[in-house]
Write a structure and sequence with these properties.
Number of domains: 2
Helix content: over 70%
């Protein structure tokens, strides 16, 4: 019985090889290689599609989970927004469970903002620095909050850099001047009056019509006095 099974397997294997050899002969080497390459491409494309579909679904699930956490954030129920309420996930769990998705990325922004409000500045930095967004207004806000955390920690150089990044990211008269005013203050706290004047000059010369221009001129005059100009 064993010999019969072995013979049948050998016969089947021979038939398979014969079929492949026949295909090679009919299609020619180039055609056969092309067919194999085509099959490989189809398999790879299928795998990529599955990965992208899974990631999209995972992100959609994460976005749905964020709804209640965002509601708590807007109501200033910060602990519930951060840690959940026992039935709904908080931002920290969303970051962990839906890692690699936009939902997790946006949750990092919220978590950083919450820790900043709670005066836990190192924790705020950990989350804000990992956040990035294609929406320039949101990204600018992320840079500005990072600057706020650095300011509270007394790291005025990094704070100024983050505020200037925020101003450059949005680059308009409605938001940039406020960020530049903060950058000027950070440089002043650093004791660098020359550097503190530059953001004010930028407001005055590049953002005509901005509501901060009058204050920018006043602070510029004051800083020029401190700088001995």
């Amino acid at each position: 019985m064993a010999n019969k099974t072995s013979q049948e397997a050998h016969t089947t294997s021979s038939k398979d090889r014969s079929s492949v050899d026949k295909m090679k002969k009919e299609m020619g080497p180039a055609g056969f290689a092309g067919t194999i390459a085509g099959l490989v491409i189809i398999v790879i494309a299928s795998v990529i599609y599955f990965i992208n579909y899974s990631k999209t679904q995972k992100n959609a699930d994460g976005q749905n989970e964020m709804f209640q956490a965002q509601y708590y954030f807007e109501q200033d129920s910060l602990d519930l927004a951060l840690n959940g309420d026992g039935r709904n996930l908080g931002f920290l769990s969303i970051i962990d469970i839906y890692s690699g998705t936009e939902a997790a990325n946006l949750s990092s922004f919220y978590a950083g903002a919450i820790y900043l409000k709670q005066q836990k500045f190192d924790e705020a930095l950990n989350y804000l620095k990992s956040f990035s967004n294609d929406d320039y207004l949101v990204q600018a806000r992320g840079y500005a909050l990072t600057g706020d955390a650095y300011m509270e920690l007394g790291n005025f150089s990094n704070a100024a850099n983050e505020y200037e990044k925020a101003a450059a990211e949005v680059d308009d008269k409605f938001f940039s001047p406020a960020y530049l005013m903060k950058a000027s203050l950070a440089y002043e706290k650093l004791g660098d009056f020359e550097a503190a004047i530059k953001p004010l000059d930028k407001i005055i010369t590049e953002y005509f019509g901005a509501s901060e221009i009058v204050n920018a001129k006043k602070h510029k005059a004051r800083l020029e006095g401190l700088a001995g100009k």
